[in-house]
Structure formats: structure tokens, C-alpha cells
Known about the structure:
Immunoglobulin-like
Amino acid sequence: MEKKSDFIITYSLFPDDAKTAFEYAVSIWEQLIESSVPIRIKASWRSQDSNVLASAGPSDYYSNFDYAPHTNRFYPIALVEKITGKEISGSGVPDIEATFNKDIKWYYGTDGETPDQLYDFVTVALHEIGHGLGFTGFFFVTGSKGAYGNETIGDAAAFDIMVVDANNRNLLDTSFYELASTRLYNAFVSQALFSNSPSAKLTTPGSKIRLYAPSAWSDGSSIYHLNDDTYSYGNENSLMTHAIGKGEANHDPGPITRGILADIGWKIMKIDFEKPHDIETPKPIDFKLVIKSDIAIDYTKLFVYFSTDSFKTHRDSVLLIQDIKPGQFIASIIPDLNTKRIDYFVSAGDIQNRVFNLPTEAPAELYSVHIGPDNQNPEISHNPPPYFVLNGDEMQISATVTDNVGVDTVFVEYSVNGIPDNSFGLPAQTGNVFKGVFPVPQIQLNDGDIITYRILAIDGSAAKNITVSPTNGTYSFKIEKLFSPITGYFNDFNHATSDFVISDFEIYKAENFLNASLHSPHPYPSPNNNNSSFDFTTMLKYPIILKSGGKMSYDEVVLVEPGEVLSKFGDDDFWDYVIVEGSKDNGKTWLPLADGYDSGSNTVWESKYKENIDSEQFSKTIGIPDWFINHEINLLSNGNFQVNDTILVRFRLYSDPYAHGWGWTIDNLRIQDPVANNEMALLPGNAQFYPNPTQDLLNIEIKFNVPVKILTIEILNIYGQKLESITAQGVAGEYKTNTDFKNLPVGLYIIRILANGESILQKKILHN
């Protein structure tokens, strides 16, 4: 059979003969499971309870992602990546985690001729991978009550959606099965639970798909297996039953398992369409859809269902017909003259009697088209950047703009240091995104410049409704300029400095500390949603030229949530962490200079973090200088960077959901061996140019930290052409001069300071 997916395996202590058998099992799934994204498995070889052959499951679950088959339901990460076509968890994170009992007497052959005294490893591996692909869920028992996900919220997994009782009643139907109830528990142990999977039912016409639901709840076995008695050994569907005997071998998941996995989402239908806008006068409402399906479409089951009273009494439909383009379908609704609103949903079916709706929970959830004069303003969603680093990239700005009748125009009004410039438009992209570029030439910008702006959107109605974002005032961001590369750097943070991109971190003297240092937020927040995270960063604006044997050191206090016992950086139970990273491409991509770490890296930090944790999993411990520890990093040791690489350096605190603490502080930062030469001759803030704007004489005052052999001051126009040059030799300490703008045309100019021929500062000057 053709290989339809790529499984990538990371082994932990696996013997070679077990690897061979495991890879054979993987090859079977690769012919059955289709995904454009690699499916990553971590396979561990460990001792377990004597009655446990192996265990496995998804490493994570996601809900409400693009093309999710149902709203607010959870899907295993491997399936989410298949549906979205994106690597979500990252290439270093497994999608499935499986552990096999090393103390079991295994048969590693792939021929299915398993001796009676051994367990067939391929069969067990196939079974466990099936759980990792989604043959599992969130049902559990607490006391004498049955529940799922959470006793109060009731999160459910994709498998759970299809579980029904003997009367075909869904176990997620809270009108009958109240969450955390005895009635739900009784269903769990009823010995009569079934999967309502349409694809699986097609494989056994007239028979229900019976699940394992023994009279005594068995955590890890109940519900998430097929019933042993119904599908005993020798039956083509026996692989996913809850038990396997010695000598048993089954190297095929079977049609029922394939069907259940298909309906969990491994065989998906994706419906793309742009919802019709509201209209101000009655006219045909056109629908254009693109449908992609893993199973052949049933062209008799493609409809737009619509109603003028939210489907309370009236329901009508129009058939979607295939357009000229393959996979594209069209339909039109012609409203009556007096119609004020049409509610609708899209429904599409495949040849296996599966139906997919948009919105996914229709008809409980509906889309609408309103008809009549429009007075609704557009809605603008925009995340303003706190800064922009001048690294050669365009200064892009984007916003998501929506409107019930459609967006006509989106544009930006902006100023640089309070001086207005011409507005510019944001052209429409896909998905209601509007994107453009600030047109100001970067040569005119200097470190510390402030750009303020606001976004305006006008809709396509007769009234031309307009929205301004923000409603009051403006957004703003700071220009951060990278300085000339240096080979060494030191900062004790006791003096004002512009050396760092300061957004999340700050430099100040904290309460109870003797001196200033570089601080993360205290306390740092955590997101309160699953599958979310926050990153808090600060970046050194001096690129570092790496030298042989180069090291970085700093004093620090780290009070961030420690991971689980024996977890290490990169594990999904290595919770919050701090890390120092480098970039060779001006900040586009970042690689670790060393592994991330947390409070668990020091016994004092860990004990202090844990001794004051409240009921919300927040550590109230506040850092003090007595807990400073020196940390040293070999800049070349992990192989991510080489001698003579020029890298940017940033410090990052990663925060996962829920638990959090005081944070991180850094002092006495030393990178390689700082040297006293022109590399650090002029620190930002030690140069003054006044008056600015100027009409004639511009005064220049510069304070140098180290002697400069040759000082050059250049006056450039906005095109970078040099108009004047002032040169001085043997400059130490303070240098003062002036230059006359009286005979120059009104406009913007650039003052450039060079030390020993190397540009170390630029400043924009307005002549009026």
C-alpha cells in the first residue's frame, strides 16, 4: 500500500529488536493515516506494573482551531496538525507519547507467528498508537459519579462525541445525562455503550458498534476500547479491545477502528466560503463555496438551508451546484421584498452518510444576512507593536477589519516625533486582513524616535460609516536601532541605558534590592486558557561577534514555575522557563545559546518558590538579592553558533497556562571580554543636538566614554548625500561644536557621528 503519512520516532532506552518491531507497526499506520504534517512519537522503554503491557496517548489536545469539526470539543494534537496542515506543537515536541513495559516477555517478529508464551509486540504497538491517534477521551469517574473533562465545565474529546447508550442517547446530552451525575456513572458501567460513528457502522450493517463498558469502572480501559466479547481474538476488529493474550497477533486495526478514527477527524471535509454581507436593498444573496473532502462528496447532499424566523416555523433550502472550478459550488437565495433578515447554514455530505455543517453546531448556531439601511460601523482589531527594530525589514502594519456590508477603505494617519506625515492605505489581504507599510525611509529614523498612528476604516454602505482605532488618542511605538557589532559587553545596570529593547523587561532598583538590575514583570502573568503561552523578552541592541571560547555570565534570581520531577527542557511537563537565545538573521529566527531552565535549577529558588503557593497556583514569594546566583554560558557549546558569527542576544521568560510566580532578574551582565575602544565610545543618550527644529546654528555636544582617535560629524540630506563633514582628532571626554543650517533648504537632515571611521550614532534634524 501507498505511504500516506510520515511518523517520526524518538526512542528512549529502546532495544534494537523492539525498534524494528515498532517501526513495522508504524509502517502499517503510515499506510492508513493521511497527513501532510509529520506525526511525532516518543517511545519509551520502562518498567511498569506487571499487568500493564504498555500505555500511550496524545501529548496534547486543541479545540476551536481552523476547520475544527465541532466547536468547543478537543482533538488530539496529531489530528489537529493533519486538519490544519500546520506543525503546531513544534518539531521537538512529540504528538504521541508511548511507554512499553520492558519486563514483559515480548515477541518481536513481524510475521504474526507469535509463540504461546510471548506477547506480540507489533500488535501492542499498533494498539497503543491507535490511542495516540485519538481512540481515547475525557470520561472519568469521581466517587459514584460519572463526568468528563472537568466536573463543572465538561470538556469532551472527539471520541466522546460519538458515545451513545442502548437507546442511542448521546452521553454528552446534558438534558438527560447531567454532568458529574450518578446517572452518567450508571451509563459508564452499564455494559451497553456504543459508538455512533457513521463510518464504522457502515462496516457492520444492522449491528451496533459496542464499546467496552464493564460493570466495574476501569480507568484507562472503560469506554476507550471495543468490547472483548463482541470482537474476540480472531475477529477482524479485535485490535482495539481492552485485552490481549499471549500468542495473539493482529496486525490490522480493522474496519471499525478505521471508521471511528475517520469520524474523529482523520477523514475530514473542509468547507471554505466567505459569508455574504448584509445588504441595504433586496437582491440575490450569492454563495460561493470550496469543498475539499477526504471521502467522495455526495452531490445530492449539498444545501444552503435558510429561514426568515430562525428556523422556528419556516425552513427552506437551495441546492449547491458545482461551478466551473473543481471543488467550487455556488447557490443564490432571492429574498422577498419585505424580508428583513435571513438565517442560514451550509450542509454538505459524503458517500459515507456523514454530514458537515457550517456553523458546525447548526441549527443551534446560525449565520444571518440582514436587509435594510446600514448604520453599523466597521470593527477594527489591531495589536500595536511596542517597538520596531531597524534591521532592514519594512515597517509593516496590519489590522483585521470586518463590516456587515463590507469594507470600502482602510488607511493610516501617522506622525514621527509629533510631526504629521502623509496618510497611507492598507490594501485588503485574505481573511479580512488589511496590511501596509509605513512609508517613512528608515535612514530618516533614529534610535528612540516615536511613531504615533491611528487606523481608520470606512464601510461600503450608503452612509459610509467610519471607525477610528483607537477610539481616543493614538497608538505609538518606539524605534529601536541596532548599534555597531562589538566583541564584548558589560552592564551592571546602575546607570540609565538605551542598550536594550525595553518592552516587557525594565531596568530599575526593585524593593529590597541594593542596586538596579534587569527585571522581567513581577509577578509575571500566565494565560488562563489551555494551549496558550506568553513570552516576555528583552534584546541587547549591540550585536555580538563571537570569539573562540566566548562566554556569557550574569547574576540572577529565577522564581518561575518549576517543571515536574525529572522533566527537562523541551518536555511538555517542563512548565515555565527562562532562556538566553541568539539570532544570526537580525531577529527573524532565534536559537538557544543554552537550554532553558527554571526554579528547579537551584534548590534555594525551588524551595522559596514552593513555600508560598496559593490556591490559584500562584507563588507569592518575592525575590531578594540574597538569592543571586552567578550563571555562565559557553556561547558556542551547543553548536547553534560558530566563531565569527555575529548574533543578536535576547533574554526570554516563557509562561504557560495558569501557575506563575515572581519572575526573573539579571545583573552584572558580561558577554565575552568587554574592551575599551571605539566600539563602546559613545553610549546612546550621551549626545545632544539643539535646538531641534533649528533655523540656523545647531549646537552639538558629545560625551565620550573612551578616547577616540578620529571623530567625524557628517550632515546628510534625506537621500543620504553628504553635505558637510567636521573632523577632530584625539578626542577624549566632552566635545562641543556647531554647524550652520541657514543656507540649507527647509526640510529633514541626518547628523551622523563616526568614531575611527565607524558609524556609532545618527540623529534626525528638522530645519525650518
